[in-house]
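Q: For a teaching session next week I want to show students how multiple molecules come together into a single three-dimensional assembly. I've collected the sequence lines for a complex. Could you give me the predicted C-alpha cells for the whole thing so I can convert them for display?
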Amino acid sequence: MQHRTITALPVVGAIAILIATACTTGGQTTASPTAAASEQPQKGGRIIEGTISDIATMQPILVNDTASGRITDLIYENLLIQDPQNGETKPRVATFSQSTDGLTYTYEINAKANWSDGKPIIADDVLTALEGYGKSKKTVRKSNFQDVVGFKDYSDGKATTIPGFKADSSNPKKFSITLTKVSCPAINDLNIKPLPTQIFGKYVQDSSKDEIDSAPENTQPTVFSGQFKFVEWRKGDQVILSKNDTYWQGAPNVDQYIYKVLANQTAVANALKTGEITFYVGLQAKDLADMQTVDSVQIQKYPALGYTFIGWNTASPTAVGLGDKRVRQALAFGIDMDQVIKAVVFGEATKNLAHHVKVQWAYPTSNLNQYTYDKNKALQLLKDAGWTPGADGILQNAQGKKFNLTISTNSGNTERETLAQVAAEQYKALGINAKAAPEAFQGLVTKLTTGDSTLEATIIGWSLTGDVDPYSIWHSSNIPDPASGKTGFGFTYFKDPAMDKAIEEARNPSNSDCSTAARKKQYETFNQILNENQPYNFGYENNTIAVSQKTMHNFAPAPYSTIYNAFQWWVKQ
Amino acid sequence: MRNFIARRLLYAVPTLIGISIITFAIARLSPGDPIRLFTFGIQDFTQDDYNRLLHAYGLDKPLPFQYVDWITNALRGKFGDSLIYHRDAFVMLLERLPNTLQLASAALLLQLVIGVPLGVIAALRRGSWVDGLIRVFGVAGHAIPAFWLGLVLIIIFAVNLRLLPSIGMLTVGHDQLDIVDRLRHLILPAFVLSLTGIANYCRILRTETLDVLAQDFVRTAHAKGLRERTVVFVHALRNALIPVVTALGGILAALVGGALVIEQVFSWPGVGQFTFQAAIAKDYPIVQASVMFTSTLLVISYLLRDLAYAIVDPRVKVS
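A: Of course. Below is the structure for the complete assembly, covering every listed component.
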C-alpha cells in the first residue's frame, strides 16, 4: 500500500501539470492594428518593448547591433529617413539637395530642431559626428565616408580638418558635404546623427586619440535630439527612456519607453501573453499560431527587409557541378520552395527570385524566371549538364565523379537547420547525394568571408538595411582570395562583367545621375543576371511578425523602421 | 592556521595560472573570428577596416604575446575592453554580479532550509511513507532538467495563473527597493536553481543522520534518559551536519556558474546570462574575465570549506 501511494504521487503531479499547462487564453487576434481612428490619443503611460539582447552602447558612431541601433534611433535624430515602406531617402530633421555635378549634398536642419538642453541643432553638430567617425578606432562605419573630400587624411591623422564639410557662414543650420566622386549610396551613407558639440566636441576637437570610443557619455548620454531622453541603463535588464518634451515634431504621447531585455524567444512569447511587455517585433513563425489564441494582443505582418538563401560555391573543387549554370538552375527547379516555406516557416514567407526584395524600390519589375517547381525539367537540365544516374541512383558525370553536396548552415538556428534538411531531401530526389551540415555560426562566418573552398552550399541570410547598393556582396572585387588573404562577401565566386558594370553604374554613374529611375534601370539588369545564373537559390523573404498589446495605438511598424512615429504612439489607460 | 592559509593560497597560484592558460587557449583556438562575426554583412567593410579593428583590440599580435598582455593586465584587475560593449569586461561582470549573488544566495538558503530538515525527517521516519515521498522528491530533484521545470513553472504560475512574473528581477516601473516585488520575481528562479541542491542535502542528511543515530554515543544518550529531541538535535544532528559543510564548499561558486541556465530561462540579468551571450559573440575579454572570476571564487570557497571543516569537526586539524 505504501509503495503504491508513492508511485501514484508523481502521476498525480504530472496530471496536475498537464491540466495547468493545458489552460490557454481563448479568443482571436487581428491581422492588423485595431486602433480606432476616432479615438483621441491619451497622454501618459509607458511602452515596454521586448528585446533578446541588451544594448552595447549609446554612441551612434560605435553602434553595430540592432539593440543599440534602436535606442540611439530613439534618442538621437537622423538627418534623413528612409521611407518606412520602400526605403526611398527623404528629409527628416534636415532637407537636402544634390548639386548638378552630383558631387555635393547641401543640407538644412529644421529651424525648430533643438537639443534637449535648449541649444539649436546646427551644422557644427554634424561636423562633430563626422569627426567622431574619423577619430574613432572602433567604429565599423569608417568606409561610409571614404568618398568625402579629405576624410581619409583626417582619419589617418594627416589633416586636422575635413575640407569636404562646409558650414554655411550665414546660416548655422545649413552645410554641405562634397565627395571626391559621384557616389549614389552616399546619400544614405552620410545620413548620420548629429552629435551635441557641447558634449562630444571635446573628444574630437582637442585630441588626436580615440577618446570618443571611451567617452562616458557613450553609456550615460545627457543631451538628446530624438523622441525620447535617456534616463537609466540597468545593465542586462532594461533601458529606461522618458519623453523628450522639446522634440521638434512634438512631445511623445507616452511618458516612458522601456527597452526590456529577455533571454530568448520563449520568454518573449510568455511576456507578451502576460502583458509584461507592450510589443515585440520579430516573433518567430513557429510561435504565431499560439500567439493568435491570445485575446489581449494584436498581430501585424509585413515582408522583412532581407532574405534567406542557399549560396552555391561555383568554384567548389568537390561539388564541381555547381560551376555549371544549368546545374544551378536545376537546383532551383528541383526544390519546391512553396512547400519548403510551408514546412520551414509555416507559410510566413514568400519565394524570392533575385537579390533585391519586394519592399525595396530597386526590386525588378521585369519578368524574372519564377523557377516553378518542375522535377522533370530539373532532371533534364542535369542531364544536359552531363549528370546522369549511376548504378546506385546517384548522379555522376562523364568522369564518374558522383554529385555529392554538403549544405552548411549555422547550428542553433532551427529555421535554417530545417531548411537544410528539407533541401537535402528534395535534392536527394534528383539523385544528388545531399546532406545538411550545421556548424557554429562563428566558424561559418569566417569560412565564408575568407572564401574557404570546403564550403559547397551555405544557407544564410542577408539583412538589406541601408542603401540598395549590392556592391559589397556581388561586385567581383569582393570575391575572397584565400591565397592572398583577401576577404569579402562574394563567397559564391560568381562574377559576370555585365553585372559588375550594372553595379558600378548604379553606384558611381558616369553621367552623375543618381536618380531612383536611373539606378533602378541598372538594377533590372543586375537582378536579371542573378536570376538567370542562380549563384544563390534566392530562397525566401520572411515575414516580420510584430505583436503588440491591444491597448497600444498608432503602432505601425514597417520594413524600414519600427519607431519612426513613436512620438505618436499612445496607450489606452 | 596562518601557515595553512598561506600554503593553500600558494597552491592556488599554479592552479589559477593553469586555468588562465586553458581558458585563453580554448577561447582563442575555437573556430571563428570575432571581428568577422560582428562585421559580417556590413556594406563597404574593407580589409583596412578589418586590420584597424584587429589592431584596436590587440588581436593582431601573436597569441603568446596576447596572453602575456592579458595576464599582466588581469593581475592589475584589467581584463580588457569588451569587443562588443567597448567597456572594461571585469567592471561589466561586477555590475551583474549582485544580481547573480542575489539569486544564488536565495537558492542556497532554500537548499539548506528545505533540504536539511527533509533529510533529517526522512531519517527519523525511515521506511514510512514520508520517507518514501522525500526520497522520490530527492530523485526527481536530481532528474528533472532545470530549464524544463523552469518553463513549466512559468506556464503554470505566470502565463496561466498570473500569480508570479515570468521575467526579470523587478516589474518595470516599480521602485528598485520594492522588496515584495523583488521576492515575487525571486520565487520561481530561486526554487528551480535550488532543486538539485535540496535533493542533494536531503540525501546526504538522511544517510548521515541514519549513520549517526546508529552510533554508540547516541545509544548512550538515550540510555542516560535524554529526551528524543535533545538526542537528535543536540547530539546527532551536529555530527550529521559535518558532510553538509563539505558539500557547502564550492556551492556558491557552483551556484554562480550553474545559474547560467536559470538566468536564461527567467531572463535574469546576471553573470551567467552575460557570459553565455559573450561566449556566442566570441567576446574574449568577458569570457576570460568570467571564467577567471568563477575559478577564483571556487578556489577561495574550497579554502573556506577546509577551514570550516576543521572548526565543526575537532578531529580534523588544519596543520
